[in-house]
């Protein structure tokens, strides 16, 4: 009798345990990810829509059951652009057991580079600084580096220059690692045969009036400015150039200056700040813009609408930026899952490295495919040139891959 | 030669806007010996209020400019009433620490609105043509900025020299206890000092916002950018703020125009004002027009 009672208890317990496991299997697994970025503080005009892009896409993945019963739980934390806070956030994320990490600024990515390697954590930052990849195995840039973008702009200048002689170029840089990053690579490209002459390198300050700088550039015969900075100083420069009648109405117009810039100098935020002075500004990025019709635009706007985002966010290229990095992370999880591999930081790292050739990933938010390998950690190599016409960015020509990025390697 | 004069004119334009932005520091320091570290945030708030009234409510920019000054006047007065009134008589460093806290609070409040992380620009309301004379050009925005600056500075100079309230504010700055003994309400004077500083900050914010566009980081950074102007002019001198502002503006333009890009130099426009500031302070530690107090025992 006693034995029978014991048997019943054991049987019941076994049933309970089995039931618990079944329920857990049905509920699916939860994969933890972390994102630390500036939702407030400096550069939050980019960070805020970026965070919303990440949040919305992961929500979409969960809502649409793209990973079946499995879910992505991405903790998003504001670091106010402070590296010490980013480090603390990253350490907290590690304690939570994240399998993939999304970082933001150039400064914090450079500062935490060793931590990412030590923890073997696959990391995608919002900074496209080529220096992020030096001595690092675990950082993956989502798109072409700032260097590749600046070289792409320089190549575009060389190929579309209308006047005689070598086009004279000035670089307009943010006074930081983020701004200075591409200079050396553009200089290398020039040394390797790229037909432009860098006449001056300007590191801007918080200028209220750029008259002196612009007239100096003009007197030196500068015809093109390549900017690697944020929108605000570009907007002030464009307003001053417009006031002085220096802005070229067509690319390379003689006697005028054609202003161009990399990813974070442009987009709708620039138009918001510079107003009509943004007209004829040339800008390159690997992302689509919503002022151009297409599948990517439809998808981006539909996602933003689904999650109740305002019009500014929905049309921000930094929203697309956030959506895209979330797409890459979700795709890596999906591929690992399809192989029946356990989702860990190691397996996701392997999936990123295998994302090339036939396995390249095509998010509709970019103008080209995402390709990674052991020797290529920059995702989308393709760039698109855009120019402001009637207050919106329109594509100019076809997407292209800068030649000299390969030549200077 | 026209290049030289263009740099001088640009320097005066930039310098007078610096002076207007610096005025808020001076007005508060003049009456309470307190350095308001949150001044940049008030500049930004003034600009955003004007934009909200124009861009969101639809009030013409001229009226919203005046309204933003009135609103910021009362806002700054309320800030003083809520946070700083209780600190009257306490060590100055305590009050300055409170203004640092205030900076974080206003930052946080602005980030609760769209203005914290979204960029805007004022609608165009002035002619886009240039005003040119002798090869030197200036935009309407800059010209209006300079006129508003000099009107406000003239007004405040008159206020402090001639009006009863202004004189009582100077008296409080000299000696709080002596002022109280002759019947001056020190709390009222402090409130007024903050309110007038808010008024000038709003004007500066709208003018800077018209030039740079409305980006919170850019606007609030001007609180720090004009710090050398305040120190160079002498913390308690309105005339000092104007002179120092123009000096700084011209130095920046000359550095950018003649030094940057030559002899491998770059970014001198950012550094040179500080070098000049240090040299001048070696000879005039209280700034160009600051009061040198001598206490006889």
Descriptive tags:
heterodimer, A: 409 residues, alpha/beta, Rossmann fold, 2 domains, four-stranded parallel beta sheet, 13 strands, elongated, B: 297 residues, mainly alpha, two-stranded antiparallel sheet, globular
Write up what this structure looks like.
The complex is a heterodimer of chains A (409) and B (297). Chain A is α/β, with parallel strands linked by helices and 409 residues long. Chain A has two domains: 29-144 and 293-376, Rossmann fold, CATH 3.40.50; 147-285 and 385-407, Response regulator (Rossmann fold, 3-Layer(aba) Sandwich). Helices cover 45% and strands 17% of the residues of chain A. Chain A has 14 helices and 13 strands. Chain A has helices spanning 2-27, 44-63, 83-96, 106-119, 146-160, 177-191, 211-219, 231-243, 268-274, 295-306, 311-314, 317-338, 345-353, 404-407, and strands at 30-37, 71-78, 100-102, 123-124, 141-143, 168-173, 197-203, 224-228, 258-261, 282-285, 378-380, 383-389, 392-400. Chain A has a seven-stranded mixed beta sheet, with helices on one face. In chain A, strands 2-1-3-4 form a four-stranded parallel beta sheet, with helices on both faces. In chain A, strand 3, helix 4 (106-119) and strand 4 form a beta-alpha-beta unit. Chain A is elongated and about 100 Å long. Chain A starts with a helix and ends with a helix. With 297 residues, chain B is mainly alpha-helical. Chain B has one domain (16-225). Helices cover 73% and strands 3% of the residues of chain B. Chain B is built from twelve helices and two strands; from the N terminus they run H-H-H-H-E-E-H-H-H-H-H-H-H-H. Chain B has helices at 2-32, 39-57, 61-84, 92-111, 140-162, 164-174, 176-181, 186-212, 216-225, 227-233, 238-259, 268-283, and strands at 130-133, 136-139. Chain B has a two-stranded antiparallel sheet. In chain B, strand 1 (130-133) and strand 2 form a beta hairpin. Chain B is globular and about 60 Å long. The chains are: A alpha/beta (409), B mainly alpha (297). The A-B interface holds A 39-45, 47-48, 175, 200-203, 205-209, 211-213, 215-217, 219-220, 231-232, 235-236, 239, 243-245, 269, 272-276, 312 and B 3, 6-7, 10, 13-14, 17-18, 107-108, 111, 114, 116-121, 124, 128, 130, 137, 139, 142, 208, 211-218, 221-222, 225, 252-254, 256-257, 260-261, 266-267, 269-270.
């Amino acid at each position: 009798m006693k034995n029978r009672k014991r048997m019943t208890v054991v049987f019941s317990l076994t049933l309970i345990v089995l039931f618990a496991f079944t329920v857990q299997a049905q509920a699916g697994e939860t994969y933890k990810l972390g994102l630390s970025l500036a939702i407030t503080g400096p550069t939050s005009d980019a960070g805020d829509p970026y965070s919303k892009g990440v949040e919305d896409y992961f929500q979409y993945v969960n809502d649409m059951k793209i990973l079946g019963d499995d879910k992505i739980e991405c903790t998003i934390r504001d670091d106010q652009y402070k590296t010490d806070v980013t480090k603390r956030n990253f350490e907290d994320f590690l304690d939570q057991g994240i399998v993939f990490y999304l970082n933001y600024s150039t400064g914090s990515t450079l500062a935490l580079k060793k931590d990412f390697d030590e923890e073997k954590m696959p990391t995608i930052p919002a900074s496209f600084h080529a220096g992020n990849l030096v001595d690092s195995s675990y950082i993956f840039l989502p798109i072409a580096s700032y260097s590749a973008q600046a070289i792409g702009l320089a190549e575009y200048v060389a190929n579309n220059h209308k006047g005689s002689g070598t086009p004279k170029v000035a670089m307009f840089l943010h006074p930081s690692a983020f701004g200075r990053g591409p200079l050396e690579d553009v200089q290398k490209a020039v040394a390797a045969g790229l037909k432009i002459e860098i006449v001056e390198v300007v590191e801007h300050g918080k200028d209220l009036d750029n008259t002196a700088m612009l007239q100096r550039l003009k007197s030196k015969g500068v015809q093109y400015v390549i900017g690697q900075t944020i929108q605000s100083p570009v907007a002030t420069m464009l307003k001053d150039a417009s006031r002085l009648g220096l802005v070229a109405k067509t690319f390379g117009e003689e006697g005028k200056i054609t202003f161009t810039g990399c990813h974070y100098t442009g987009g709708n935020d620039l138009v918001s700040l510079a107003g009509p002075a943004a007209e004829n500004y040339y800008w390159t990025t690997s992302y689509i813009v919503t002022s151009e019709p297409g599948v990517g635009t439809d998808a981006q706007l539909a996602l933003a609408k689904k999650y109740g985002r305002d019009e500014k966010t929905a049309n921000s290229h930094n929203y697309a930026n956030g959506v895209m990095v979330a797409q890459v992370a979700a795709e890596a999880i999906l591929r690992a899952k399809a192989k029946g591999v356990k989702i860990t930081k190691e397996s996701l790292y392997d999936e990123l490295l295998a994302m090339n050739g036939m396995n390249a990933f095509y998010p509709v938010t970019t103008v080209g495919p995402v390709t990674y390998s052991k020797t290529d950690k920059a995702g989308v190599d393709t760039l698109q040139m855009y120019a402001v016409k009637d207050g919106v960015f329109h594509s100019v020509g076809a997407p292209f891959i800068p030649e000299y990025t390969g030549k200077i390697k | 030669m026209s290049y030289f004069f263009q740099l001088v004119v640009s320097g005066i334009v930039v310098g007078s806007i610096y002076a207007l932005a610096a005025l808020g520091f001076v007005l508060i320091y003049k009456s309470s010996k307190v350095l308001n570290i949150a001044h940049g945030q008030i500049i930004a708030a003034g600009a955003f209020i004007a934009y909200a009234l124009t861009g969101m409510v639809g009030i013409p920019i001229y009226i919203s400019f005046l309204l933003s000054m009135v609103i910021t006047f009362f806002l700054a007065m309320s800030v003083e009433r809520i946070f700083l009134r209780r600190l009257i008589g306490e060590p100055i460093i305590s009050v300055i620490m409170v203004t640092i806290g205030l900076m974080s609070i206003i930052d946080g409040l602005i980030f609760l609105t769209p203005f914290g992380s979204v960029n805007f620009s004022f609608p165009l309301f002035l002619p886009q043509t240039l005003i040119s004379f002798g090869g030197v050009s200036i935009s309407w925005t800059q010209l209006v900025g300079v006129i508003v600056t000099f009107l406000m500075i003239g007004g405040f100079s008159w206020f402090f020299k001639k009006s009863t309230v202004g004189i009582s504010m100077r008296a409080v700055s000299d000696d709080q206890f002596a002022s109280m003994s002759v019947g001056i309400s020190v709390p009222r004077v402090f409130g007024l000092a903050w309110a007038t500083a808010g008024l000038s900050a709003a004007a500066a914010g709208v003018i800077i916002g018209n030039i740079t566009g409305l980006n919170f980081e850019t606007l609030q950074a001007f609180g720090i950018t004009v710090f050398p102007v305040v120190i160079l002019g002498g913390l308690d001198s309105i005339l000092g703020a104007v002179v120092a502002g123009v000096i700084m503006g011209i130095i920046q333009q000359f550095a950018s125009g003649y030094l940057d890009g030559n002899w491998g130099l770059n970014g001198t426009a950012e550094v040179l004002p500080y070098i000049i500031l240090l040299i001048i302070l070696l000879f005039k530690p209280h700034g160009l027009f600051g009061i040198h107090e001598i206490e006889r025992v």
